[in-house]
Specification:
Strand content: 25-35%
CATH topology of the largest domain: TolA/TonB C-terminal domain
Order of helices and strands: HEEHHEEHEEHEEHHEEHEEE
Radius of gyration: 22 Å
Largest sheet: 5 strands, mixed
Distance between the termini: 69 Å
Number of strands: 13
Length: about 260
């Protein structure tokens, strides 16, 4: 009897540990490339909701379930519970901007991944205020395929005075990491990112890094940049590019940037 009690307790403990993996024990929280910061940035710069939702002062938590294809893109997306159709469609649209690490492979399992969104009228108003800081030229229609291009009729340009304006922004905004100064670290960080059709950036990753905080500082700078989007066939398109930022102690706070978008 005593042995049976021990076995039952062990089985219950194992079940509890398994049940904590996800809301239904069969789903796993998806890890987005770029982490939660990237998800938040996409919501801040890309989410668009109709006024009918905003006037209702909504505050909701949405749980989305989905599979991942071989490239880490979400497919078969489903939102749990009763949700306004406009909100449902817009949240699903946000998945075009995400890619995920495929951490598991469960055969014959429907939607093994999940992701939660906390959205409210108050939070969206903050997002809207952030988006209104960017003033672009008259926009062309955006390409509706959400495909990311590396060649276009016109490459993206920094929204204010082009390349010269971008250099000025980096010069006046860069903060040489204290640890890098202490250790006399120099080098060039190459950041890869996507310029979205509305001029904001996404999918920011380090292609060539420099330690002691330089890579993180370069990512912080690029995240703040805004662009005139690339144009292909008379439409604004998503465009992947690289940009190098050089950390040079001799020119600290004077000339820390190198210029020019790098070709793919």
């Amino acid at each position: 009897m005593f042995k049976k009690s021990i076995i039952i307790v062990l089985l219950l403990n194992m079940f509890c540990l398994y049940a904590q993996i996800s809301p239904t024990s069969l789903e796993y929280e998806a890890q987005a490339i770029g982490g939660k910061e990237h998800i938040e940035q996409i919501l801040q710069t890309q989410l668009t909701l109709p006024k009918t939702i905003l006037t209702s002062n909504f505050d909701t938590k949405l749980i989305t379930f989905f599979d991942l294809d071989s490239n880490g893109n979400a497919i078969n997306i489903k939102i749990e519970g009763k949700v306004n159709n406009a909100l449902r469609n817009e949240v699903i649209r946000m998945f075009y901007f995400f890619r995920f690490y495929k951490t598991i492979n469960l055969p014959n399992q429907s939607r093994p991944y999940f992701l939660m969104f906390n959205l409210s009228t108050e939070k969206y108003k903050r997002y809207f205020k952030q988006k209104n800081k960017l003033s672009l030229k008259k926009q062309l229609l955006a390409d509706s395929s959400y495909k990311i291009f590396t060649k276009a009729d016109k490459s993206p340009e920094y929204y204010k005075n082009g390349e010269e304006g971008l250099n000025d922004f980096i010069l006046t905004t860069i903060e040489y990491p204290k640890l890098a100064i202490e250790k006399s670290v120099e080098g060039t960080v190459v950041i890869e990112f996507v310029v979205e059709t509305n001029g904001y950036v996404s999918n920011i990753i380090v292609k060539q890094g420099v330690n002691t905080g330089c890579s993180e500082e370069a990512m912080r700078l690029i995240k703040q940049t805004k662009w005139q989007p690339a144009i292909l066939n008379h439409k604004c398109v998503r465009y992947k590019t690289n940009y190098p930022i050089t950390f040079n102690l001799r020119n600290n706070n004077k000339d820390n940037s190198s210029s020019g978008l790098l070709g793919q």
